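quick one if you have a minute, typing this from the bus. theres a chain ive been looking at and ive put its sequence and its fold in token form underneath. please have a look and point out which stretches look like helix strand or loop to you. anything you notice is useful, everything is just below.

***
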Amino acid sequence: MSTEEGTITKVSGDKAWVRIRRSSMCENCGSQTVCSSLGGGETMEAEALNTPNGQVGDRVLLKISTKSLVKISFVFYMFPVFFLIAGVITGMKLAKSYSLEPELGALLLGLLGCALSAFIIKLFANRVKKNKDYTPEIIKTVQKAV
């Protein structure tokens, strides 16, 4: 299980938005530079289940299951790679059957594979959004807001 400490910035019903500094979960990630270049910066906000009913300004401890984190990471990072490679290989083989240049077939089916993976990831993301197993949870309040 992975834990992070952060500050609640917004509360709505049984959910809270927690601003966390990129630290233990991010320090070994190979995609740190990608997050930063996409505007991630030093902090990020995560929507979490507000189990202890924290209030805005409270310092809290979040947890997310490592199994869920690995599964999400695999789908978001590896599916596009697999579908691209499968599309390129299939495109090269099918192109010969249709008297096309193998590179053109590889390009077209590689792009189709990427588009298909984006569609599958979108479906997975919608399912994950509704599943509490993939949602971070506030497990305790470290310091109440002043």
